[in-house]
Design goal:
The protein is an alpha+beta fold. The chain is 41% helix and 20% strand. It contains 7 helices and 4 strands. A 4-stranded antiparallel β-sheet has the order 2-3-1-4, sandwiched between helices. Bound molecules: adenosine-3',5'-cyclic-monophosphate (CMP). Adenosine-3',5'-cyclic-monophosphate binds at residues 55, 60, 64, 94, 112-113, 115, 118.
Length: 137
Amino acid sequence: MSSLEQTLSIIKPDAYERNLSEKIKAIFIKNNLSILKSKKLHISKDEAAEFYKVHQSKPFYDQLCNYLSSGPIEVLILEGDNAVSKNRELMGATDPKNAKDGTIRHLYGISIDKNSVHGSDSVENAKIEINFFFKIS
Ligand code: CMP
């Protein structure tokens, strides 16, 4: 069954600094995810800590927050049929070493930290994450 959804995508510092934003956005558009809004920004470590607070008990949390705040990023609201799972399919596995051929992380990811993109993992979290960056409900 298809349902029209929105999800949040982040083009992370490693991809942004290699000028991969346009290539990544073209993958979304080619796969019927439209870009409703986009914004370039450079967040603080405190903002990254708030965004990733679900991971606060993980051993990699501090490193993760340092990384997301280390340089400019681009955040996107993607919309389309089953946008949450479609985006996750297009991104590929968290660790680029395990990402399937043709996925964004297989094409561009460098490591489990520098894995080029983030995508919401559920419709509920997508709403929270979109609201975090765009302050809309
Ligand atoms: P992301 O989808 O942005 O969500 C959390 C991030 O934590 C994940 O991508 C990875 O970049 C990062 N991360 C770092 N180490 C790990 C790990 N061991 N397991 C899962 N995620 C990790």
